Amino acid sequence: MPFGRLEPRKPDAPMSEINVTPMVDVMLVLLVIFILTAPLLTSAIRLDLPQAEGADAGASPQAVSLVVDAQGVVYWNDQPIAPEALRLRLAEAAKRNPNTELELRADTSVPYGRVVETMGLAQKAGLSRIGFVAQTPSVTPR
After folding, report:
1. What tens digit of pLDDT does each residue of 7-37 get?
2. What does each C-alpha distance from 96 to 37, 40, 57 come to in angstroms?
3. What does the alpha-carbon distance between residue 60 and residue 131 come to, in Å, rounded to a whole number?
4. pLDDT at 66 exceeding the cut of 60
5. Which domains are assigned to the chain?
6. Does the reported pTM lie above 0.85?
7. How many Cβ atoms sit within 10 Å of the Cβ of residue 28?
């Protein structure tokens, strides 16, 4: 081989890995753009809203707790109450605020008729928002 003949070269193998660096760079630039422009989009319109008297928009209605224990005794906000006094208190609460919510808690051993009777007193007094409060069952690990 006096003239230095070159051996035939093998062609380069194709690249089989994806280069994610450019994609990450583009995503970071987009993230920075969104972070900078998001506050500008939310506060673009300045308003001076009129003022009016009325209830607060986030004000929750008044709630009264009514409990019927296992013996059938009724409690108004954790104080025992007689049936006649209960009628008066329910009517008074309905007169003050007709949107008063009644949270009714009843023991599991209380007959259904007693619960319906208590609900009827509340509806007759003018309270239509009655919520039944129950305890969520506890999950036992297996």
Report:
1. 777 878 887 788 889 999 999 999 999 998 8
2. 49, 45, 19
3. 14
4. yes
5. 63-132 (3.30.420.270)
6. no
7. 10
